[in-house]
Structure formats: C-alpha cells, structure tokens
Amino acid sequence: MCALFGIHDYSNSLNSRQKEMILSVLSQECEVRGTDATGIAYIKNGKLQIYKRPISASYMRYNIPHKTKIIMGHTRMTTQGSEKNNCNNHPFSGNVKNNAFALAHNGILRNDRELRQSMNLPKTNIETGSYIAVQIIEKPYAKKQIRKRGTFPSCEKEQIHKSKDCQIPVKYRRNRVFDNEYRRFHI
C-alpha cells in the first residue's frame, strides 16, 4: 500500500534546504509502503505546484521555494494503472470554483468504475481508482449524491485551520476523506 507524508512549517522558520532534507528523509522512510513513484504538492506564489515522478523516493530530488509552508507527499505502490504513465501517480490536481486542490490517497477504491458510471463522470486517461475522488469533489452536486448513495466516504463540517496560504482540516473523523462543507482542500 502507499504512504502519505508532509510538512507544515507554521512559523515559516525552516529554510528551503531544511525542508528539502526533511522531505527526503520522510519520503525515504515511506518507501517501505511504495517504491514505484513519488510525488509532492505545495503552493508557490499562490499557485498549486505538483511534482511527481515514476521513481523511488531514494532517487527523488526536491527543490522547494523558501516561503512554502505546507507540503504533502505520496509514495506509491502500484495497484492500478502503470506508474510509468506519470498521470497515474499521486498527488492529483483538481479544481472547484477556481480553487485548485491536490489529493493523494492511500488505499484502493474498488468501486471506482461503478461510481464513474452511476455519477456520470467523464472518462479520463488516469487509470487509478483514486482519481475518482478528485472527479467527485469537482462535481457541483457531489455532496448530495454522496450522502444519498453512501458509496463514498463523506464528512460533516469540521474544525478548519486557516492561514494565509492554506485551509486544511486539522481534526479528522473516523472513515472520513475530505471536507464536503468547504469542498476544497488547499495545501
């Protein structure tokens, strides 16, 4: 199974080199959960940046801008879709009402084809089941459909940590994936 890792530099006290070293250590420690691909997402000058490659974390080199406060990462063990096709690797990007977001998932969604068909989601070149979560979040009326059908985890309004660069859930409830009330996840 895959692994997730990240950094939140609350006080912006780490320089770029320190962040890169921490990311390198974190991602290499996560290799035990996946060596097929590695990726990160962060905000640079107000825009979402995603850097991912079909390589093990041991070979990944990071170049993080100094003012970046939050970085999320993913190491992948391929279960669906070839890691050589880089669009299959995490994190994935999405957009809701001109708000870009990144999503990385640890696990397998076994009902992705059924969800795609029942929710009339468009076909895509991305072959992983996890990408359907991005498509569902992007769908304007997904919240109602998700709760009605109960086919994908949802959550209620949760405590949100707000800062200049981000809005992320800080309190997770059991079996919850994303915050439907805000319908965005900025890193």
Shape, per Cα inertia axes: globular
CATH superfamily label? Aminohydrolase, N-terminal nucleophile (Ntn) domain
Supply the CATH class: Alpha Beta
Strand content: 15-25%
**CATH-defined topology:** Glutamine Phosphoribosylpyrophosphate, subunit 1, domain 1
Number of strands: 8
Structural domain tally: 1
In round numbers, the mean pLDDT is: 78
**Rg computed from alpha carbons, rounded to a whole number of angstroms:** 16 Å
The main sheet comes to: 4 strands, antiparallel
Structural class: alpha+beta
What order do the SSEs take from the amino end to the carboxyl end, as H and E?
Answer: EHEEEEEHHHEE
Walk across the major sheet and give the strand order. 1-4-2-3
Q: What are its keywords?
A:
Glutamine Phosphoribosylpyrophosphate, subunit 1, domain 1; 187 residues; disordered C terminus; four-stranded antiparallel sheet; alpha+beta
